[in-house]
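Checked the freezer inventory, then went back to the computational side. Two predictions to log before the end of the day. The first one is the construct we discussed on Monday; recording sequence and tokens without edits.
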Amino acid sequence: MTKHYTLAQLAEALGADLQGDPAQPIEKIATLLSAGDKDIGFLANKKYRSQLASTQAGAVILSASEAEHFSGNKLICDNPYVAYAKLAQYMDTTPNAAQGIHERASVDASVKLGQNVSIGANAVIEAGVELGDDVQIGPGCFVGKHTRIGAKTKLWANVTIYHEIVIGESCLFQSGAVIGSDGFGYANEGGEWVKIPQLGSVIIGNRVEVGASTTIDRGALDDTVIHDNVILDNQIQIAHNVEIGYGTAIAGCSVMAGSVKIGKYCQIGGMVAVNGHNEVCDGVVITGMSMVTKGISEPGIYSSGMPHTTNKEWRKNIAHLRNLSDFKARLKALESLTEQLKHTDN
């Protein structure tokens, strides 16, 4: 069911300056291009400014510097993109992962339940688990023995949390996430692999979001640690004993190998691989498809992924790449010859 708001209600929720009709009805958020007369759009990137002239939006969120370019109803704020995010939270209609404790949920008698905990059908909550107030456990989830989950954390359907994991408050786990699986630890004895039981845990802070099918392995001896306010996209691999600092964001399909340490406020693009035992300092941006083979000690933007080109050009470049050693040897020979000729002339 669609919920209706007035522009005045939205302005109050955002703390924004309203210019126009306070009674303007708003039903949902939309792009400037697709918005109708009961939608609210937003301008966060000036390259879309031209769409202000043709948008049918009932109102637009924009900054004070852009306000003169739109004559309709508007909400003016310092950061329109952040305002859009907060408005999306305010108008969010996403349902709960579960409602109450389902009769088909399996909850051990020793589990400690906070107030207003919800557990969906076919979820399994093992002995010694502690669930804080307002925790939501979706259908088909598994929470292993002696795990602790903080207040207001939400697990969508089919999330697996292994034993003795610690998860903070107000976290969100998308479907298929696996937390606390074994790290990739083996010793080799005469060609036979000898498994090393992973004896550490996973410690996850507050306000952490983990994407669908992302895996966070438990530590081998010490713990894998994800600090507060970290966001992890879908299908990421976090190996054993990794530590990810406050406020870091990692995009989909990236891999953090064992014992990697990522600093605070880093941004790591999609399909990035960081080799094991390397450390990345605070404030680093790594662009997509980069391979990090050694530590990064200075903040900045780092890249190594090769941009696409035509197949013909790529094959030509790769042929040159394969001959780099030969080119280097020939260059050294030419430099040596040049030096000899200089001495001869003198």
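The second is the one RB wanted added to the comparison set:
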Amino acid sequence: MRKLKNMNTFMMCFSAGACFLLSFLMFFHPLRQNLVANRWLALFVLTMGTAFLGISLETTALSNLQFILPPALYLGTRYFVEPLLVFKKKHWLHFLPYLVCLIFQAIWATTGRDFITAILFETGNFKFLVRDLLPFQFLAYITISYQILIVHKRNLKLITAAVKEIDLDWLRYFLVILAVISIFWINDAVFGFAVLLKIMPVIYTGAVFFLAYFSMRQVAVFAFSNAELEEISDLLEHPLPDDKQKTARLSDKQLAVLSKKLDELMVEGQIFLNNDLSLPSLANQLGVSIHDTSYLINKLTGGNFYNFINQLRVEEAKKLLMAGRIEELNMVGIAFAAGFNSKTAFNTAFKKYTGCSPTAYIKQQSSN
């Protein structure tokens, strides 16, 4: 038992050190990507490190800092998906539990007692302390942050045809890990199942290294100019045509002119073959706003930019496959020649729009 306790203490100290190093790297991110979002995430990781240190030292002196965890995680997530987000007075409300805890901690310190370990209620041998509120608050913020990322992934399809690198799936997976951690945390606070308590340090350490790996590999989510970001923000706030509006965003005449121009760009110019094509760049070539371009695509196809461009790319890939270019280019070459920026994106889109993989498609056409 003593040996296991020593191992757990070592794991917590190790995790705390890893958190302090990671928070430094995230605050001064070497790739200078998503700076504000990463700095909020750095605060989250730093606070998590102090929590691990408190566990290893078996002290509650740092426990009140843990109330910073939920808002830091939430605001970090918000800044990843809203590049023009400005910190406002209302955002301080997320830190209210921490401020309340800080005030009561100072008051209770005069009596020699620790507010964080104060009993809120007890039933028989069970005692629910102030600090036991933390995992429940944490789990609630994780749920809200996860929903934000789901909406973000859907919104990306309005502005780009390649979402894989910027869909923040790594952050969603990290939230799932944190949800698991919060369950272990709740067990520690309420239920006390011994098996879960034993493996809890391993889960904590794994979460830190998962975040370290993916946070250092991230790319800029919205690599656009400030003017484009302002238009994109407006589009994401009002993503679909509003049928209740008395005046359409584009008149029938404008739709006809832009439809012809769009057709020329796609059929004659074949700009969809550009791997880096995005809604802002298409809007620039059409000579209209980003929001108008999205509106145009929705009116003409009933879908979004992602579906519009990738359907064209899949059709091009089908032509290349049937022309026998597979032997010359191989499957990766076909993917890039058709405008995709990765084989994974190609396979996903191809199966979505044809119902089968590229290899299966070749076999089907050969047998016909």
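For RB: Residues 45 and 119 are 28 Å apart (CA to CA). The chain has a mean pLDDT of 86. Let me know if you want it refolded.
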